[in-house]
Amino acid sequence: MEKKARILMVDDEQGIRDLFKFLLEPLGYQVFTAIDGLEGVEMVKKESFDIVFLDVHMPRMRGPEALKVIKQLRPNQPVVIFSSSSDPKHIFEEEAKKLGAYTCIYKPVEIDEILKIIEEITGRESE
Amino acid sequence: MGKDLYNSVISKIAVIAPMFAKALVDMGLEKYGLTPYTVTPSQMKRIIDEEVFPKLKNFIKEAGALETIGGGKIVFNNKGEVVSIDNAVKKLIGLQPEMVFNITSNDKLQIKAPLNSVLNENKEVVIYEVSIKEPNVILNIAGGPVKDGDNKITGAMFFLQDMTLRKSLETEIDNVYEKLERTNNELKTAQNVAMQSEKMAAIGQLAGGVAHEINNPIAVILGFSQVLTKRLLESDANCMPLRSIEREALRCKKLVNDLLTFSRTSKSSMEPIDLNVAIDGALSLVETKAKMRNIGLIRNFDDKLPNITANSNQIQQVIINLCNNAIDAILESASDGQITITTKCHDGFIEISVSDTGSGIPEEVRKHLFEPFFTTKEVGKGTGLGLSLVYEIVQKHKGTIEVESKLPVGPDLSFKGSSGSLPGDPDLSFKGGSGSLPGTKFVVKLPLE
Ligand SMILES: Nc1ncnc2c1ncn2[C@@H]1O[C@H](COP(=O)(O)OP(=O)(O)O)[C@@H](O)[C@H]1O
Ligand SMILES: [Mg+2]
Questions:
Q1: Atom 27 of ligand 1 has which residue's CA nearest to it?
Q2: Which of A23, A108, A109 faces B227 most closely, judged by CB atoms?
Q3: Which of A26, A86, A110 sits opposite B222 (nearest CB)?
Q4: Contacts of B181 (CB under 8 A, 6+ apart)
C-alpha cells in the first residue's frame, strides 16, 4: 500500500484537532497537531508535511503570519487556511492566496469538502 | 401648521370684528405665552373659549350691536302664541322686523315640539341645536316655562344664541386636528422604519461578533457527527441520533450564515454598477438549484439600463433571497413552475422584479413578511431572515419593495402591499393583484440618484 500523506493541523481549538485525527487517521493519514501558529512553524522547521491546515485566529501567532513564515521556510508547502469567519467578498481569500495559500475553507465545513481538498492536493502531488 | 390655524381663526373672527380679530387672538396667545407658530389646536380652542369669545361679546355689546352676534328671546303664552319676539331673533332667521313670527306657518326654529313639552308636559328645561339653511345659521336654543305665584304655567320663554361662528371655528380646528393626526402618523411610520433598520443593524452586529465563536463548536459537532454517520451502517441503531445531530448542526450553520449576511450589509460601499451583470451573477448561483427541481429561470432584461450607484454584493443577496423564496413557493405548490426576473428602466428609477408561479402569500403571512425571524417554513428549513435582509438592503439603496400575490383559491384574496409602510403595519393598503395565475411578484424600485 502506498504511504499515506502527513498532515499538520494547526488550530487552537482542541475539538478541531481531535476531529481531524478522528476523521483522517482511520483513512491511513498521519495527523500531527499544533496548538498555535508558533508551534506550527516550529514543527514545519523540523519536519516536512504534505499538507498544513492553518486556523486564522490563534494566540501567539495567527494563521496569516504563520503562513508567511512557513512559505519562507518551504515555498512549495501546500497550506490550507481554515477560517472561522466567512468572507463574502473573498478579500481575505485573495490575500491568503497571494501569500501562497492553496485555498481557504470556512468553518463549519462539511467533512466531504475536507476530504476532497486533501485528495486534490495529494493526488496533484503524486502525478 | 400653527400659523395656518392662526390665520384661519382670525379670518373667521374678522367676519364679525374685522378691525379687532387679529388683536383679540394675539392677546390670547400672549396670555398663554404662545406664538402663531407654536399654538396647537387644543390650545387655540381654549384661547377662543376663554379669551376671544368673552372679549368679542363685550366688544359687540359695547359697539351696540348685540343683534349681530345674535342673541334674543321669544316669549309664548300658555296657548303657545307668540307674545313677544326680539328683533334680533327675527333677523337671525331672516324675518324683517315688521313681519310676524308664527310657528304654525313658519317653524324654521323647530320650536313646536319643545314648546309643547314645556307647556303641556311639565318639562323644566329644553335645550337643542338647530341649523337653518336660509339664512345659513346654527342656533343654540334653550327654553323653559314661565310660572305664576301658584307655580302654574302661564307661558314659555325661549332664548336663542347664534352658534354659527363658534361652529365654523370648531370645524376649522377639527380640520387642523385631522391634518395634525395625519402628519403624526406619517412621522410614526418613518420612526418605525428607522427602528426596523436599527434592529437589523443590531442583529448584524451581534451576529458578526459571535459568529467566530459559534462556528468553531458547530464545526466540531458537525464534523464528528458526519464522520460517525459515514462509518455506520444504515441499520445501526445510532444512525438516527447521529443524523439528527448532523442535521441540527447544519441548521445552526445556516442560521449563523444568514445572520452574518446582516452584519455585512452595514459595511459595504456603493459604486456605479451594471445591474444586469450583478443580477446575472446572482442567477448563476440559483440556476443549478432551480434546474435540479425542474424550475425554469427566465431572464427578461432591459438591455439599455444605465449604470446605477449600488452595492453589487447586496443586490445579489436580494436576488438570491427572492429566488430562493420563489423556488420554495413553487415546490410548495407541487407543480412545475417558473421564475421570471425582469429589469426595466423607468423615468428616474430602475425596476427589478422577481415573479414566481408558486403558492402565493396568504393575508396573515403578508403582514409579517419582512419581519426578522418570521418564517412559515418547516423547522430548520427557513430562518425568516431572507426578506428582512432584502428589506434592509432596499432601504439602504433608498428604494422601495412591493409585493403582489395571488392565491390559487380566488381573486378576492389577492393584494398588493409595499414597504413604504412597515412590516406588520396594519395600515398597509392592499389593492387587487394582477393577472389570473396564482403566484407572487416582488418589485424592487431603485432610484437613479
Ligand atoms: N415568493 C413567495 N411565495 C410565497 N411565500 C413567500 C414568498 N417569499 C416569501 N414568502 C413567505 O415569507 C416568509 C418569510 O420569508 P423569508 O424572510 O425569506 O424567510 P424564510 O425563507 O427563511 O422563511 C416565508 O417563510 C414564506 O412564508
Ligand atoms: Mg427565504
A1: B376
A2: A23
A3: A110
A4: none
CATH of the domain at B199: 1.10.287
Answer whether residue B415 shows pLDDT above 80: no
- The pLDDT, as a whole number, for residue B262 is 61
What grid cell was written down for B253?
450553520
Percentage of the residues of chain B whose pLDDT score is greater than 70: 81
What radius of gyration do chain B's Cα atoms show? 36
Q: Which of B387, B401, B415 to mutate to test the pocket of ligand 1 (most atoms within 8 A of CB)?
A: B387
Residue B383 CA, closest ligand 1 atom number: 22
* The three three-digit cell numbers of residue B223, written as one number: 464534523
Same domain membership, residue B42 and residue B78: no
Q: Cell match 393583484: residue?
A: B433
Residues B77, B201 within the same domain: no
Q: With a CB-CB cutoff of 8 Å, which residues 296-315 of chain B face chain A?
A: 313
pLDDT band at B108 (very low <50, low <70, confident <90, very high): confident
188-217 in chain B: CB under 8 A from chain A: 211-212, 215-217
Query: Cα dist. B330→B76, B321, B353, B411, B440 in Å?
Result: 82, 14, 17, 19, 10
CB distance B211–A15 less than 8 Å?
no
Total structural domains in chain B? Answer: 4
Residues B29 and B102 in one domain: no
Contact assessment for residue B61 and residue B108, using Cβ atoms and an 8 Å cutoff? no
β-pair partners for B309: B272
The 10 Å Cβ neighbour count of residue B239 is 14
